[in-house]
Each structure stands twice: as C-alpha cells, then as structure tokens.
Specification:
2 copies of one chain form a homodimer. With 233 residues, chain A is mainly alpha-helical. Helices cover 73% and strands 4% of the residues of chain A. In chain A, a hairpin with a 3-residue loop joins strand 2 (79-82) and strand 3. Chain A binds chain B through residues 23-26, 28, 64, 67-68, 71-72, 75, 82-83, 99-100, 102-103, 105-107, 109-110, 158-163, 166, 170, and chain B through 22-26, 28, 64, 67-68, 71-72, 75, 82-83, 99-100, 102-103, 105-107, 109-110, 158-163, 166, 170. The structure holds a DNA duplex (30 and 30 nucleotides).
Chain lengths: 233, 233
DNA sequence: AACGTAAGGATCGTTGAACAATTCGACAAG
DNA sequence: CTTGTCGAATTGTTCAACGATCCTTACGTT
C-alpha cells in the first residue's frame, strides 16, 4: 500500500510540469501567438504597419483584445508601438544587431563556461544532429531552426528559467533580421560543423577553449549578418 | 552663411536625441509607472490582489486602459496574471530568488570581466560614494538605493542597452522581496565596504580577482536574503 | 468525514460602439 | 520653397453590456 501511494504521488508530481499549460489561453495571448508566428516566418515584413481595424476584423477579435496582443509583442520588441501612429513590425538597426550579439556573448559564454549537465548535453547533441541531417538534405531552412535550437540549448546550461526566457526573446528578435539573408545556405552552412566541434569541446570539459571558440563563432556570425544587412537600411 | 547653416544643422541633429521623450506617454504607461512605484515601495504587498474595478475607479481611467497597464507590469514579472481570477502582486518563491541571483552572477560577472570604460567607472564610483555617505548618516534606506545603483552601474560596463534593461527589470523584481528584511541595516551594511573594494579592483584592472570577489559577494547576499525570506512562505 | 453537486455572487474576458486626440497628406497662400 | 489650413483616416480612451469563469456556501450522498 505504501509503495502504491508513492507511485501515485510521483505521478502527481510529474503532472505539476504541465501546470503551465493550464491557465495559458486568453484570446489576447492566442492572438499574440499567431502574430508572433507570422512575424518570425516573415509574413509580416519589418517596417510594415499592422492596422488595428484590418487585423481585428481578419482575426475576428475586437480592437481592444488585439491591442492587448500588440502590447505583449511590443514588450518582446517584435513590434514598435508609436503613439497615435500605430504598431509596426520592428526594424532592427545595425546597432541593434550588434547589441543582440553582445547579449549572446554574455548568455552563451556564461553557459559554456559552466559544466553543462547531462540533460543539457543531450539537448545540444540533438540539435547538432538535426542540423547535420537537415544540411545533408539541403534543407537550409531546417538548418536554421536547428541552429537556433542549438544555441537555445546551450543557454539551458545556465540552469536559469529567466535566462532561458531571455534567450528565447532574443532569438525571436534576431529572426526579424534573418530574413534579409537572400541565401540562407551561405549563412548557416559554416556553422553546422562548428556546432559539432563545440559540442565535442563541451563533452571533453575543455570549457575555456569552448568559450574562446564560441566568441570567434559569434563574431563571425555577427559579421556575416551585418554585412548582409547594412546595405539596405 | 555656410557655417551658419552648419550650426543650425548641428542644433537640429542634437534635437534628435530627445526624440525618445516624445512618444513616451500613453495613459496606460503612466498608470503602469504609478503602479510600479507603489509596488516597489511596498504600498501593494506581494500576494495582494489588484481589483480592476477598484483601481480603475481610483485612478480615473477605464478598465481597458488599466488592463493594458497590468499587461505591461505582468511582462516585467511584477504582477501575476491568473486567468479569470485577476492580477496579484507577484510572490517570489525562494527558487525565484535563487534564479535572480543566477542571472546577476551572469550579468554582473560578465560586466566585471570586461575592462570598464572611464564613464562606467565614474558611475560606479558615484554609487559607492553615495552609499558611504548614506551609511555615515545612518540612512539605510538610502544605502539600499545606492547599492542598487552600484550594481546597475556595474552592468553598464557591458555597454549593452538590452542588458541594462534586463538588469533594471531584475532589480525591480528583487525589490519585491527586499521588503521582507525587517532590519535593512543588517542587510546593507556589510556591502558598503565591499563595493569600495570592488571598485578598487576594477580601477586596478585586476578583473579576475574582481570576478571571484563578486561571486562571493553575491553568494552571501543571496544567503542573507533567503534566510530572511524562507521562514515566512 | 470525505466527496460530488448545485446555486449565487463577484469578478474577469471580450465585445461593440462612441467620441476625442492625433497624424498625415493635399492644397492654397505668402 | 516655406508656411498655414483643412479634412480624411487612424489611434487613444471611455463606457456599457453580456457571457464565462471562479469562489463560496450549502446541501445531500456515500
């Protein structure tokens, strides 16, 4: 009887993980989810104005609800809210991109310098493998998302929910500018092998080497991005 | 005539700096400012429910506008928004506090490992001096705010607007729990001298020493806070 | 005593309409 | 070419209303 209770308790404890999904469904948040997806897939282009009337009608929600969704995305820096002028899909300046990479160096650098947990290593390894598979299949869009998962997984080594969340937001913001890459292959290909290499360094516990390697990695990614981006401002 | 035009253009260019102040005043944001202040000064206590009806009436704004303000503060993690139940002043768990200090170690640690700019050193030195003055005057509340300014200034060494903003939010969140300290002196006093010490290490360029010193510093602050906090959960 | 159900009240979620405030472009006057 | 002025379009904000959800209380069942 005792062990029976124990397993029940264990099952109940597992359930607690799903608690997050419970409350999470107001109309405004669902609208925000939709818009976030549309923005990160490039359906809405940076600089484009999002009309309250048009979108509220298209989605079948009231203007007030839509405005709540706009607020949410504004706080995620995906939308630019200009008073009395409306909301616009954010346009990142070159300075913004530089700042995003500064933050990445801090977040990912700190993660790499920590001994990553077994669980973190698994997540990282998965992302590496996915990227390699996608590259072999010439699916460079998939390589991009695998790459994002790779860096997100890196940050989980910090064991901090808040840093995970910050990284999620940061990557969403970066997606705003990924679309300027005319040829995604040129941007993603160089990093497939490096991800594998970095994973190796982490597994071997060569953390300082991993950190310097990562710095160079991020420097180059930033350069590539800025070069492709700067011209059309 | 040419140089006349030049100076006019220069003056106009300077004006562009103030552009930020223009759009920054919707009613919802001003309401959010008020509530944020009230929360961080402890007027609203953690766990307290903020009634839409009562507050919208008290502030003379509509429920819709107030809800927009609530969303803003929810995103800053100062309010807890539970669907169909209302918004509550956030209650930080001990795990939250631990996470906040994890983030601080990353943000402040990265800042310290960088050679801080002259400007950053000045800001840090000012905060140190303010803290010492306030301590001499037995004004422990002022010591607390000076201490916050000290750590905020530390992070500016990262030269990243986004990290500055993240630190601002983090400290606002931490203020939610500072109020549990019955005796602010016990909490702030030990750190006045350490701030001075850390400043010295930074000035001398002994960055690695500064980093390890800071880690110990944050460990102890976290311990003090958790010990005072854990009992009354 | 523990649990399921039901009813009522309070509060939130969302809507639709309305009006004021603001922006923006066009066009005329200097 | 610059400077007013006007009007259309859009946003900012308010208000009232109704359905949905949650909490409490009470009641009855097992």
């Amino acid at each position: 009887m005792d062990d029976c209770l124990l397993t029940v308790n264990d099952a109940v404890a597992d359930l607690a993980q799903d608690r997050g999904r419970l409350g999470r469904s107001s109309t405004a948040e669902r609208v925000a989810d939709i818009l976030r997806d549309r923005i990160s897939e490039g359906f809405f282009e940076p600089g484009q104005r999002l009309s309250e009337e048009a979108i509220s009608e298209a989605l079948g929600v009231s203007r007030n609800t839509l405005r709540e969704a706009f607020r949410l995305l504004g706080h995620e820096r995906l939308l630019d809210h200009r008073l009395n002028r409306g909301v616009f899909v954010r346009i990142l300046s070159a300075e913004d991109v530089a700042d995003l990479y500064r933050v990445r160096r801090v977040l990912e650098g700190a993660a790499v310098r920590r001994a990553p947990s077994q669980r973190a290593l698994e997540l990282i390894a998965e992302a590496v493998a996915d990227g390699e598979r996608a590259a072999a299949a010439d699916d460079w869009r998939a390589v991009g998302t695998a790459n994002i998962r790779f860096h997100q997984a890196l940050v989980t080594a910090n064991q901090s929910p808040r840093l995970d969340e910050a990284m999620r937001q940061l990557l969403a913001e970066l997606r705003l500018v990924f679309h300027v890459m005319a040829n995604p292959r040129d941007f993603h290909e160089p990093f497939v092998a490096r991800n594998r290499l970095l994973l190796g360094l982490l597994r071997d516990g060569r953390l300082e080497e991993a950190a310097t390697f990562l710095d160079g990695y991020l420097d180059e990614a930033e350069q590539l991005l800025i070069r492709a981006y700067e011209p059309n401002r």
